Amino acid sequence: MKMLIAIGTKNKAKTGAVEAVVKQFVNEELVFEHVEVASGVSAQPMTDAETREGAINRAKNTRNVSNADFSFGLEGGVKEIDGVMYVCNWGALVLKDGQVITAAGAQIPLPETVAEDVKSGRELGPVMDEYTQQNDIRQHSGAIGIFTHDLIDRKEMFEHVIKLLIGQYFFQKA
Ligand SMILES: O=P(O)(O)OP(=O)(O)OP(=O)(O)OC[C@H]1O[C@@H](n2cnc3c(O)ncnc32)[C@H](O)[C@@H]1O
Ligand SMILES: [Mg+2]
To answer: Domain Non-canonical purine NTP phosphatase/PRRC1 spans what residues (predicted)?
Structure first.
């Protein structure tokens, strides 16, 4: 039986992360589907709670349009602690029966200038493109890659989140 894996985005850093980790750990014949779904939160989530909710909504909406065995939702956002803005990232895996599994990824602080632009209402994606004078950073290094000298890029950060999700699924099944 083929296993259908659906992902609620067309962002290459996210789809690449899901495909790499699922192929590594799920020993079945796999079919991948990318669907654009609503996150149900703002384009730039500003708290952990909002970012987590976006990931869950994306995964549920993906499940509803795909009826997949695994439906993934991944959401990037920012949060503030003690006046310092951090990037935060959340993932959700919704199973065919509707069960929701969640996990969060690595967080690093953003430089003051970038944080100020985001606080003024801009999305981190375009702010990062301006900061780096590159296009579409959000699908490649991501902010996390730029500010870690690419030791951890956005795909690798999301790979960790996908491992945390699938790992919890395996734990429950065992
Ligand atoms: O197509 P989708 O799946 O929406 O992918 P996205 O890159 O827009 O990612 P999110 O919606 O999850 O992220 C919310 C916002 O934060 C930006 N963002 C989040 N993490 C980022 C990162 O590491 N580097 C650059 N932009 C980032 C992103 O571009 C959006 O403006
Ligand atoms: Mg987005």
So the answer is: 8-163
